Amino acid sequence: MKKFFSIYIYTTIITIALLALWFYITNFTGWLSPIIFPSPEIVVMAFFKALIELFQGFVSSMKLLIPSFVLALILGIGGGLFFGLHPKSRKILTPFFNAFSPLPLTLFIPYAIALLPTFELASIFILFLAAFWPIFLGTIQGVLLVDNHFWDNAKTIGLQQKDLILKVIIPASSPFILSGTGTALNLSFLILMTAEMFGAKSGMGYFIQFYTDFTQYDYVLAGLIFNSIVILLVMFTFEKIKKRILFWTNLKNEAN
Questions:
Q1: Residues of the domain holding 26
Q2: Transmembrane region positions (predicted)?
Q3: Tens of pLDDT along 201-249?
């Protein structure tokens, strides 16, 4: 705890100040509508009343997010390695990558709903697209930026293709792969919440939309807080994993 507060002392102070400001404005001024902006104690009560429902929504959301993200990781890294190592194929298909990767995912939603039998499969497909492109393009970039001396050393010791990929290319390009993965994770949560708010019957985004429709903004804010905590924990865990994988870059930074 001492280490945590030494790192996040200013973050903690800002959080407490914002909570105090929220409490003051909602309880001692008439600046905001109490219906849309309920006081913190009311939101806390709603949070604990809806805790089971919130966790049920979390489980429902993860059933969409996890398979789509895992599939994006497998195909994104695998495809990125292939095209990064095969310049002819990359040159032929790069115009398609550049044309399709920036397209808004909302364009694909009606096609996904029309072609796939269930909302869950359509959501998984859209979430897959959201996560795939950052990972795929990040992996290609990582492979292309592998230092030449790594290639020279690999040729000198006669590494086979499998060992070359596992022991040289993936470790050397891992900063770019993990950077793309972090971007994909953030984007996946954004798309997940949006999709669940408009077509789902359960989930973290659905919880917010459901109570918005009934103007129960204490539950809406409770859902926003719960979603923020989930995303914060997921991203914090990812950063810890990323730091452990890229331990050699941390040592390099400390040396500098």
A1: 1-32
A2: 7-25, 64-85, 176-199, 219-238
A3: 899 999 999 999 999 999 999 999 999 999 999 999 999 999 998 886 6
Compute and round to an integer the Cα radius of gyration of the chain. Answer: 23
- Look at residue 34 and give its three-state secondary structure: coil
- The reply to whether 99 and 160 lie within a common domain is yes
Q: What CA–CA distance (Å, rounded) separates 126 from 191? A: 8
Look at residue 254 and tell me whether its pLDDT is greater than 60. no
For residue 83, which of 152, 137, 25, 6 has the smallest C-alpha distance? 137
Residues 6+ apart with CB under 8 A from 240: none
CA distance linking residue 33 with residue 118, whole number of Å? 40
**Cβ–Cβ under 8 Å, residues 177 and 77:** yes
- Say if residues 204 and 229 touch (Cβ distance below 8 Å): no
Q: What is the CATH number of the domain that holds 100?
A: 1.10.3720.10
CA distance 133 to 218: 37
Work out the percent of the chain whose per-residue pLDDT is above 70: 95
Q: How far, in Å, CA of 56 to CA of 42, rounded? A: 22
> In this structure, what token pair is assigned to residue 120?
């869950």
Note whether 41 and 128 are same-domain residues: yes
- Quickly state the pLDDT bin for 165 (edges 50, 70, 90): confident
Q: Total structural domains in the chain?
A: 2
